[in-house]
Structures are given as structure tokens and as C-alpha cells.
């Protein structure tokens, strides 16, 4: 099990699913990845569920607050040393804050923002909860990838906000940009495949066998958007949508 105890500024550190059916989502991902859950009451009648592997936090799941809150989606949070300073840089670089920095007592300070291309992401300053404590394992976050209509502009935005270094290379027939946090490749930026697709962060989960994971996912209500395929030098992956429509990928990286 790959255990994380600290994330550097600029590295994706947490994910959560905002879903139209949190009970259905818990059942689906529990069967798919073997997740267990801890429940944390929130203001009102809401509950935030922490999924775990081996007792370690992996991801969050939460019911959408209102029926018109938008489609089910996974959300990537990026570690920052100072949430207020990062929020100020978001607006300075042309992004949009969806709400002021909020304090989650004993856990962290955070906000949600849109980058210059409209992709939604979170910033997270830990005050106790570092984020995903398990990574690079079956059912745990493996990679985070921004699919953007303007990858160069997006990379410049995240570099300005987070201080990450952007390095671009050719992968197959596309230009792929890696974002380096504290000298380590931590996320990717690639061109979205068609103009009508949204600009989004895509979460990849580890899968020992992406083909079998995709088959299991489909048998319990998921839609296979892209059957398992290989990328030389990277690994084998499939892209799926959960029963509520939340898009994610599963991947076995090349060692």
C-alpha cells in the first residue's frame, strides 16, 4: 500500500464525488473498489462520506445539495500552503472563485474555483486532513488529468496560481503537458478530444486489471465510455461513467 503523509503545494491531494444518489454511489464504488466508508455529519441533514482502503482515507462522497446543482461529477483538490493567498492568485490569473475560502474545523481551509477555461477544481490547505492517504493502488487515486480546449493557457494559469512547472512532450499524436510540484510530475494537461466536451479534471483510479474492472463496472450499472486501451510507456486504461453519470478512469501504469 502506498501511503502519503504530506502533499507539496501544487500536487492534487484529494477528490470527492458530488452525486445525485450518494447511497447508490457508495454501493457502486464499494463493490467496484472494495471501499469502506466513514460518515461525517454536516450542517443541515447532509452527510459527507469518506471512503477508505485499509482504514486510510481515499476519497469523499456527498449528495448534491439541490436537484438543480448540476450533473454528478468527480472533483480534484490541489494542495496549497495558504488557501487565501492561492485564492487571490486565482483571480489575479483570470480564474473565478465560486465562494470565499471556508474553514472546515480540524480538517482544512478550502475553496472551489474555475480556471480560465472553465474547469472546476478545489484548493486545499490542510489543518489536519492531508487528503488521500492511499494512492497508486487498486481503487486509489493514481493520476489527475485536465482535459482543456487550450492546454497552454491552462498550464500557464496553474503555474501562476500554484508555482508548478509545466513541461510538454509528444505522447502518441498529441502534445501532453505534465505539471511538476516540488520537482515531481503530479498532474497532466491534454487537449480535449472534441469542441463540445467540457473542460474538466479527470480522475484516474488504480486498477490491477483495467479490462476486468471495466467489465465489473458495466455489470453493476456503469457505462464504458472507452474500452481498455494501451498507451506505450504509460499503461493500460479505460474510461467509465458511474450509474449516476460521474466520469472517471481506471488505469494500470507501466512499471
From TrEMBL:
VOC domain sequence ranges: 11-126, 140-253
Pfam name, any one: Glyoxalase_6
Gene3D superfamilies assigned: 2,3-Dihydroxybiphenyl 1,2-Dioxygenase, domain 1
Coiled coil: none
Protein name per Swiss-Prot or TrEMBL: VOC domain-containing protein
Species for this entry: Subtercola boreus
